[in-house]
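yo

u said u wanted the structure for the complex thing, so here. seqs first:
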Amino acid sequence: MAKGYTGKILRVDLSDGRIWTEEHDDAFYRRYFGGRALVAYYLLRETTPGTDPLGPDNLLIFAPGIVTGTSVSGNGRNGVGALSPLTGGFGNAEAGGFWGAELKRSGYDAIVVRGKAEKPTYLWIKEGEAELRDASHLWGKTTGETEEILFEEHNDRNLKTCLIGQGGENLVRVASVINDRNRSAGRTGLGAVMGSKMLKGIAVKARGQLPTADPKSILAIQKWMTKNLDLTALLHDTGTAGHLRSLSAAGGLPTYNFQEGTFAGDDKISGQTMRDTILVKRETCYACAVRCKRVVEVKDDYQVDPAYGGPEYESLSAMGNLNGVDDLHALAKANEMCAAYGMDTIGVGAVIAWALECAEKGLITEEDTGGIKLEWGNAKLLLQLVDMIAHREGFGDVLADGAVRASHRIGRGSEQYVLAVKGQEYPMHEPRIKHALGVGYAVSPTGADHMHNMHDTIMATKGWAYDAMVESYGEGRDWETIEHHGLDTEKMELWYAFTHWRHFLDSVGMCHFLPYSPSQLVQLVNGATGWDTTEEELLEVGELSDTLARAVNYREGYTGDHDHLHKRIHGRFRNDASSTGKPMDLEETAGAIKWVYQRSGWDDNGVPTKDVLDRYGVGWVYEAMQPTEETVESKREMVTAG
Amino acid sequence: MKIELRLHGDFRKYVGGSHDTLNLEIPDGTTINDVLEQLGVEDRDFWMSAVNREIAKREAVLHDGDMVEFFGPVAGGAAFQQQNLSRIRR
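structre next:
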């Protein structure tokens, strides 16, 4: 009997209203696990080259993982995937909270949605029984308003929701999918896919627990975590934004669209200041003892509702220092709006920063913006633009398609100020203080990404992270030369192991913030399923998911030509004030990218080879990943100017 | 003379509790290194320091009223929290 995974995937066709269950055997789960790998599997199996991401034939996949719902700290993750309307390639994002566990406890490992409903619809899954319901009365409402109505209609405040707001409804290409009102599967524009299907949301109410093979073994890890919460104390205390000032001091806090690396207003918007002023509570995810989530309230200059949680590092940074804004209350409001409207705080912040730099350079004028003056550091302007993007109003309609498309629409050389890879804007980590992370931006299957990536600075000293990395991955290797600049082979080997471990975590439903060792993950996976996996096998799941995702991109026309960084990253900061930042050497970077291809079993253009696919037992992908002339042509304009 | 010491990173084992700001009374001529030594901070936990928001070397002499910051290694928004595995094997 299946344990940890349920063996059932819920299938929904919104065009004809059909709902059915698909079952896979144990071998399928042992190969694809869940999350990222499962998303890539379905996209390769059931979509064809050039499928319109906003059309009915795109799939929208909700995929937690094997450990989701097993009641251990960090198990509360859910993945969402589709062909991305932002990148035109592999789209995938994760979020925490409670919804993923509720879905697993309902008896499903994933939901795969295709088609398009004629009118707004939501999916209701009660104790495993699924039905489609009219959502006309929910359309046009925020995630919070929608959730309240659903709680009332079903007379149950404990059901779990996964929704879009106006952002997704308006097909904003940086729209996200929001679960539990304030958890965002943010990147790659998945909210727009959901909106294009007229799917307002999925509400779930489960009953009972998820059976596991060895509950005692899982409980032992949960007990270990609750005894070792000092390992995550900083995260609990200040949240991820506790590092904002540190990055600024190091000269690696993206400021004024990556023109500078230190922000004068850093202390005003840091995790410490948030904790000391507007933080009212710390929340958590399903069964997690860490409790790292922020809950903030503002009642004076802005009204910020604590039901929408509070800002993480990326949100404060992308909408704050990236745009020169140092008003914490305004940023808390912007974060609330992105949760309410369902938009990626990184994408929103980044596209606005692009526009502000273009205005600074005289490439966008008030004629383009309908009279709105674009300037750095203007908090009210930021909030106005967030609102306009969500509603595609005026200049917001230009920004709503993301920075690459916006720059094509404006022209005039504005393309040169877009910092993105494969159409996805850079997140808030400056590659010039984290060179291996920069390589990770270039090769990531979802465009520039900081999560399935390594942060060089964590090994800035030979401290605890260094020790842990050496113990986990360092057998027989000499890690003496780890610096946060440079791309020597030892560091790239570390990057490879670390990054693919994170790809694995995204395929198994485990949060990246938990201090579990690889052997503890083996214990969790085996405890859930009864399998006899090893660390090597789990790392290979990570490698497989990356390769499958790359295969999707290859089919859709992406090649090695698209794996590069903006010339800004190969140059100096504007004011030369970055205290530790160093430009990435162009040739060294290109060499490291080629090294990644070779190490991954891909050819010189970053294309998965038949050999590596066969080695992973997914030989069928070779035919399925072949591009067409049209898909290759479609990605020519995605080679960004920088 | 007095300095304000702000801690960014995991220094709580050296200063106790959850304080990240300390007011210290120190003799004239004290360097950053002296403060680190006095607190017993190990190299492995210390990445860099700043004085009045400028990156400063460990040998830097401090002055009355300085705002001093110590930084531990960071990963920004995606912290890899994996700790020394020898703790897990106990």
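The longest strand of chain B covers residues 2-8. The CA atoms of residues 47 and 73 of chain B lie 6 Å apart.
cya
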